[in-house]
Amino acid sequence: MRKIVIAGNWKMYKTQSEAKTFFSEFSDHLKATAPQAAIADQQILICVPYTNLAILQTVIPSFGQSNLNIGAQNVHWADNGAFTGEISAPMLVELGIKHVIIGHSERRQFFGETDETVNQRLKAAQSHGITPILCVGESKQQRDANETEAWIFSQLASDLAGVDQNNLIIAYEPIWAIGTGDTCAATEANRVIGLIRSKLSNPNTTIQYGGSVKSDNIDEIMAQPEIDGVLVGGASLDPAGFARIVNYR
C-alpha cells in the first residue's frame, strides 16, 4: 500500500509565537472539518523553519494527533564541519525530526543546489533514518519546449543514484505552478506522476503533487489514482485552509 502524505512547506514564514498560534488554531479546524470516515494510513507533515523545530516538537504532542509530524526544509550532507548556516542530520535527529525536504526548486534556483548535492543530501538523511521528500519538476520554458519528461527523468537518474527508495517520498512540483496560482491540471499531474513511478524500482513509493494546491482544488487532485498526497506552500500557512486540505473528501 502507498502511504498518503499531506505536507506543508512553510518556507521562511512564522516566528515561534506565530507557529504556536497556528497549531492551536489548526488543531481545532482539523477536528471540525474531519470527515466521518477517517482517511486510512494518512500522515500530516509540516516542514517549518529551523528556529521552530524544537519548540514545535514540544507543542505537537498536546494536540493528541498521532499522525501529525514536524519536518525540516533542508539538511547538509556532512555530519559536521565548516559549513556556515547549514544543519546536519544528527542535529535533526536530536530534535526527533524524521522528515526533510530536499531539492526544492527554490533551493536549486536561488542557492546553487545541484543534482549532485541533492543526491548527497538524500543519502545523508537516509543514513540517519530520516525520510527525505525529493522535489523534482520542470520550468515553464522546458514544458513549452516539450522537455518535461526528459528533464524529470534526468533529475531522477542523478538524484536517486544509490538512494534507498524504500525510505523516500517524491514531490512532483512543476516550477511554473509554484506560488503562481497556475495549478497544473490534475489529470496532467497524474500523468507525469505515473511516468515518474514507472522509473522507480519501488512502485509503492509515495509521490505527491505540489504547486498552487488549495482547498478548492484538493479534492480533484487527490481523486487521481497516481497521486499519493500533496506538498503545499502558501496554503499551508492558513490553519483553516490547510485543515480543509488535510481533510479532503
Automatic annotation (TrEMBL):
Residues bound to substrate: N9, W10, K11, G179, S212, G233, G234
Positions of the catalytic residues: H104 (electrophile), E173 (proton acceptor)
Reactions catalysed, as given in the entry: D-glyceraldehyde 3-phosphate = dihydroxyacetone phosphate
UniProt-listed Enzyme Commission number(s): 5.3.1.1
InterPro entries per record: Aldolase_TIM (IPR013785), TIM_sf (IPR035990), TrioseP_Isoase_bac/euk (IPR022896), Triosephosphate_isomerase (IPR000652), Triosephosphate_isomerase_AS (IPR020861)
Record keywords: Cytoplasm, Gluconeogenesis, Glycolysis, Isomerase
Subcellular location: Cytoplasm
This protein's record includes keyword Zinc: no
GO molecular function terms listed in the Swiss-Prot or TrEMBL record: triose-phosphate isomerase activity
Taxonomy, superkingdom: Bacteria
Pathway(s) of this molecule: Carbohydrate biosynthesis; gluconeogenesis; Carbohydrate degradation; glycolysis; D-glyceraldehyde 3-phosphate from glycerone phosphate: step 1/1
Pfam families tied to this protein: TIM
Principal location listed in the UniProt entry: cytoplasm
PROSITE patterns: TIM_1, TIM_2
Keyword Mitochondrion part of the UniProt annotation: no
UniProt family annotation: Belongs to the triosephosphate isomerase family.
Subunit-level organization: Homodimer.
NCBIfam families, sorted: tim
HAMAP family: TIM_B
Record function comment: Involved in the gluconeogenesis. Catalyzes stereospecifically the conversion of dihydroxyacetone phosphate (DHAP) to D-glyceraldehyde-3-phosphate (G3P).
Name this protein carries in UniProt: Triosephosphate isomerase
Encoding gene per record: tpiA
